Amino acid sequence: MKARRLSLLLFLCALPALGQNVHVPLDYWGYGFLERMEAKGLFKSLALLDRPLNRSQVAGLITAIDLRSAQQPNLLTETDRRLLEQLRGDFADELGTMTGAVAPKRRELHAARWQEGTSQAYLDLYSSINVISNRGGSYQPADLLTEGTLGAILRGHLGGVLGFYADARNAVTRGEKSVSDQDENYDVSKGSPVTVSGPNVFRDRALAYFIWEKPWLRIQVGRDEIDWGPGFHSGLALTRNMPPADMIRLSSRFRRVAFSSAHLFLRSPLGAKYLAAHRIDFLIKPGLQFGGGETVVYGNRDVEMDYLNPLMLYHIAEHHLGDRDNNTLFLDLSCTPLPGTRLYAQYFIDDMTSTQSLTRYYGNKFALLAGALWSDPLGADNLDLRLEYSRVEPFVYAHHDSINIYTHYDKVIGHWLGPNSDSAYLLAGYQLGRDLRLEASFERIRKGEGAADTQARPGKGTTKHFLDGLVEKKCLTGFRIQDQLRRDLFVALAYTYVASRNAGRVADRSAGDHLARFEVAYNY
């Protein structure tokens, strides 16, 4: 397998291509701003359904916003204009190649920049310090943690042939309770690696990939993140809850149609494990998007060509491969029916049979997500209100064959809730000028019996019951204040109060917890 992957990479490197542009990390502040712009009608695009976006996509959206706002200046508040100007500076190179793009007043700063002929490279340095305090009934004794992170980001392209990206970060935490050498972890079933040195706990994270691109095709090989669908608080199919994974991705985009596929190499203690996924999206008309796709998890064998083929229907392929894998289907809908509003939904089908009750039979496993974003409600400039509801039925993401459970390391690839649970989430965000943002949130979570890796069917019979077993109920009320002290230097303070019943799924155990976090992060 290693030889095959290397041969594929060398083949891609040998092909002529366009100037390369890499992905914009999922934690970039601009994603929220772009969704607000879409809700306000500044652009109509399929781009936000398949994240991360590449840099040229973001530059294209910036240009669309500029053109639209030039026609209707009242669509942007003064704060929107200042944020848009910062966004232009972050994508100055890409905008410089586009006809009609507005040049930024100030470019993004880099620790180092190199150019020779048609080759370019940029180096950014990243650092952060977090002070975390967790107190209450669930934390005995209380937690007081300090976490520092250092990292570097290298991106660019070589001769307009091969784009590249590398992001390596190492975090050290102090203050974890009774840390010992036995807490080191290299067992993928228990999560990402953890190294212990005295009182220090080290966790690392890395992305690294190459990009080859034509106007009609984009191919990526390497380790990256992936987040599909219209959801904000989470999603149902492929989400940021999943740690980064090695993957081969192909995508093709046109004005009204977008297609994307990925083959991921997952981590499991049980042996080789893979996920194949593809999706297609349609811009039915300006402001109305519809799409869908499939995923399949399989393992304990070599890569299947049927699943590596991006055009193959996985449902059919699974039948021809012995009907032993975990195939799923999802549908997405997003629309902007009124200025300032965005409605969206996702429906996820893990398994379905028409010969049994759709609502009661355990083998019919569904999940639903629905949400709404209202920007500048009732003329309140720079205010965003969001409501999102998620429901994951019992036994979703589980499978009778352990290798096919919908997980990577110890994390669910889909919604972080896991099966037999639901969440109602409300967020209000107010932007005071370019730099200061205030947020207040409320969430109600209910979690019943079972997890993706513990239960694949009822203990007795074939009937499922939503929120079966002892149900843990949580209400989370919180706020967050973030200020940009200078360009790309962010300081934030967050607090959440968590009121729990049957805390930890222990009967009649109640808890009130106070979670506080102070953050400083700088990207130079």
Q: Assign the structural class, choosing from mainly alpha, mainly beta, alpha/beta, alpha+beta, or little secondary structure.
A: mainly beta
Poorly predicted tracts of residues: 1-19
Termini, distance in Å?
38 Å
Largest sheet: 18 strands, antiparallel, barrel
Radius of gyration: 23 Å
Kindly describe this structure.
By secondary structure, the chain is mostly beta strands. About 15% of the residues lie in helices and about 45% in strands. The protein is built from 7 helices and 24 strands. The protein has an 18-stranded antiparallel β-barrel. A two-stranded antiparallel ribbon has the order 1-9. It has a two-stranded antiparallel ribbon with strand order 18-19. The two termini are about 40 Å apart. Mean pLDDT is about 95; it is low at about 1-20.
Outline the secondary-structure elements:
Elements: H1 2-14, H2 30-39, E1 50-51, H3 55-71, H4 78-90, H5 92-95, E2 112-116, E3 119-136, E4 139-158, E5 162-174, E6 195-197, E7 200-214, E8 217-224, E9 227-228, E10 245-253, E11 257-266, E12 273-285, E13 288-299, H6 305-308, H7 314-320, E14 326-335, E15 341-351, E16 365-375, E17 383-392, E18 407-408, E19 411-412, E20 421-432, E21 436-447, E22 472-486, E23 489-501, E24 510-523
Supply database-style keywords.
single chain, 524 residues, mainly beta, 18-stranded antiparallel β-barrel, two-stranded antiparallel ribbon, 7 helices, 24 strands, 13% helix, 46% strand, disordered N terminus
